Amino acid sequence: MAELKIPDPAAGRAPLWLRLGALLMVAGAALAVAAYALSHGTRDPLVQRDAITLGLGGVTAAVAGSALFLRYSLTGFLRFWMARQSYDIAQLADRLLERDARK
Q1: Domain limits, the chain
Q2: d(C-alpha 64, C-alpha 52), whole Å
Q3: pLDDT of 85-99, one tens digit each?
Q4: I need a surface site. Which of 20, 28, 45, 90 has the fewest CB within 10 A?
Q5: Are 2 and 83 in contact (CB under 8 A)?
Q6: What is the pLDDT of residues 27-70, one digit of tens each?
């Protein structure tokens, strides 16, 4: 695996983006639920509209956080998968060349 020269992901900012995505998911969902409760807890249309706007912002934050979390959580897995696949293909090519050389 060291021969493939894959950069170390620990040196980058991926863990920071992963935590930010998780935080946005949780905070956005909490904000949306709180805004829903606020909009249904009053009869004042101005407060209801403000709460609906706040709720949409929370849903937007949750969706953006989910996208960030998904992107950076899959990065580590796919990086390892691709490195492993490259290594396996190289090993297969070496075995086939050795087999052809023996014939």
Answers
A1: 15-102
A2: 18
A3: 988 999 999 999 998
A4: 45
A5: no
A6: 999 999 999 999 999 999 999 999 999 999 999 999 999 999 99
Model pLDDT for residues 5-32, shown as the tens digit of each residue? 666 666 678 888 999 999 999 999 999 9
Amino acid at 94: D
Q: What is the C-alpha separation between 25 and 65, in angstroms, rounded?
A: 5
DSSP string for residues in 45-100: HHHHHHHHHHHHHHHHHHHHHHHHHHHHHHHHHHHHHHHHHHHHHHHHHHHHHHHH
Q: Which helix (H) or strand (E) holds 28?
A: helix 14-40
**Site of tokens 């014939």:** 103
